[in-house]
């Protein structure tokens, strides 16, 4: 009934129909992964710690959402940067975009080697995981809007304010979200190490985590690219080019922050 109803209602907008169909397929695949996570773990112990099955699902939510947001940003940012100025972009070419990613990568390397170990030792991995989401969740939705305001104000694509804005947002996303791979691995390994038979469970847990991230690598470009097409096409007057970035921020808020808070409350 649902596919037939959507076909009748959304037929005039074939792009939207295709997008909805893709989201439904991706949702089914996503749900299958989380149901599969229930296998391979022993019966839950009667303690205040979260059940191992629930804990693994929580970590898969975190890891999947994190990979979804980071990969989606790496896809949408070049599309937005290359977009012509009249459509909400900045008309950049490959050299400018590559230089921006280089700035983010250098920042991530230095942060991971010099800063992250000290912060993790002082604040704890779980708290650091949630704190690292704060700035990117604010910077990503602000990026296309501030960029559009700069362009309307007459700033050229090669001007210093435009370049600095690109570098600043890319640093926030690459450094803070890129280093989350370390936090996620430490959290997962640390939790499994306290369970019975940790050596076997560690392999199972990491296998499910990698499988979830692999699935997300197929889902994120599909959904983000479709939303970008809708944002600059059929929904331009309503959402504009910011639509795919806004949806990435919402996914990050739900999977990275809210799920982590719920898990932390359950563990308390």
From TrEMBL:
<feature type="transmembrane region" description="Helical">
    <location>
        <begin position="167"/>
        <end position="193"/>
    </location>
</feature>
<feature type="transmembrane region" description="Helical">
    <location>
        <begin position="20"/>
        <end position="38"/>
    </location>
</feature>
<feature type="transmembrane region" description="Helical">
    <location>
        <begin position="59"/>
        <end position="80"/>
    </location>
</feature>
<feature type="transmembrane region" description="Helical">
    <location>
        <begin position="239"/>
        <end position="263"/>
    </location>
</feature>
<dbReference type="InterPro" id="IPR036259">
    <property type="entry name" value="MFS_trans_sf"/>
</dbReference>
<feature type="transmembrane region" description="Helical">
    <location>
        <begin position="92"/>
        <end position="116"/>
    </location>
</feature>
<feature type="transmembrane region" description="Helical">
    <location>
        <begin position="128"/>
        <end position="147"/>
    </location>
</feature>
<keyword id="KW-0812">Transmembrane</keyword>
<protein>
    <submittedName>
        <fullName>Uncharacterized protein</fullName>
    </submittedName>
</protein>
<keyword id="KW-1133">Transmembrane helix</keyword>
<keyword id="KW-0472">Membrane</keyword>
<feature type="transmembrane region" description="Helical">
    <location>
        <begin position="214"/>
        <end position="233"/>
    </location>
</feature>
């Amino acid at each position: 009934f649902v596919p037939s109803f959507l076909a009748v209602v959304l037929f005039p907008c074939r792009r939207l129909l295709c997008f909805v169909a893709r989201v439904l397929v991706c949702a089914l695949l996503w749900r299958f992964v989380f149901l599969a996570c229930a296998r391979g773990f022993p019966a839950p112990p009667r303690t205040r710690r979260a059940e191992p099955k629930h804990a693994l699902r929580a970590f898969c939510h975190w890891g999947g959402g994190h990979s979804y947001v980071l990969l989606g940003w790496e896809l949408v940012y070049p599309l937005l940067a290359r977009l012509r100025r009249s459509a909400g972009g900045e008309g950049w070419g490959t050299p400018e975009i590559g230089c921006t990613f280089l700035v983010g990568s250098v920042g991530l390397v230095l942060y991971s080697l010099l800063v992250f170990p000290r912060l993790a030792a002082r604040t704890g991995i779980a708290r650091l995981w949630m704190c690292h989401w704060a700035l990117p969740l604010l910077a990503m939705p602000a990026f296309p809007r501030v960029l559009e305001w700069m362009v309307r104000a007459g700033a050229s694509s090669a001007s210093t304010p435009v370049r600095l804005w690109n570098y600043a947002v890319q640093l926030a996303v690459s450094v803070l979200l890129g280093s989350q791979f370390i936090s996620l691995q430490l959290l997962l390994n640390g939790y499994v190490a306290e369970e019975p038979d940790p050596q076997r469970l560690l392999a199972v847990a990491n296998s499910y985590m990698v499988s979830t991230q692999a699935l997300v690598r197929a889902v994120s470009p599909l959904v983000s690219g479709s939303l970008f097409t809708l944002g600059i096409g059929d929904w331009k007057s309503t959402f504009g080019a910011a639509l795919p970035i806004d949806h990435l921020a919402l996914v990050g808020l739900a999977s990275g922050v809210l799920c982590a808070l719920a898990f932390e409350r359950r563990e308390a």
